[in-house]
Amino acid sequence: MGRGDFVERIVSEAEERQSRLLNETLALRKIKETIRLMCEEEGVRESELRGGNRRRQISRLRKRICELVEIYGIPTPTVARETGVTTAVVSKMMAK
Q1: What digits encode the pLDDT tens for the residues 44-63?
Q2: Nearest-CA neighbor of 80 among 72, 93, 71, 2?
Q3: Which runs of E-coded beta strand occur in the chain?
Q4: Helix axes 76-83, 87-95, angle to 10 degrees
């Protein structure tokens, strides 16, 4: 391998990609743990939350969880997958 700008750029891109993957893994772990704790606190089963249940209590819990997008910088699609709703719903909840 040479020592030119090309090699440095490739190494830099690889390190950046690795960092992004680690951050996504940590974010997913963080949201799963937070959801578990919030469900316990509210007396709601996680399966109800992820199953798209529309009970008021569960909708309020989803709203609180959606706030994690801004607080922890967790990607909207990750929050959507973990709460059983679409990314559009997460965006709407954040806007309210």
Answers
A1: 999 988 887 888 999 899 88
A2: 93
A3: none
A4: 110
Domain locations in the chain as residue ranges: 5-95
SS3 3: coil
pTM: 0.64
Instruction: State the Cα–Cα distance between residues 93 and 90, nearest whole angstrom.
Output: 5
Token reading at 92: 């709407």
Residues 6+ apart with CB under 8 A from 1: 7
Shortest CA distance to 77 belongs to which of 88, 63, 61? 88
Residue 84 DSSP label: T
Residue with tokens 């973990």: 82
pLDDT of 20: 60
Are the beta carbons of 88 and 41 closer than 8 angstroms?
no
* pLDDT tens by residue, 12-22: 777 776 666 55
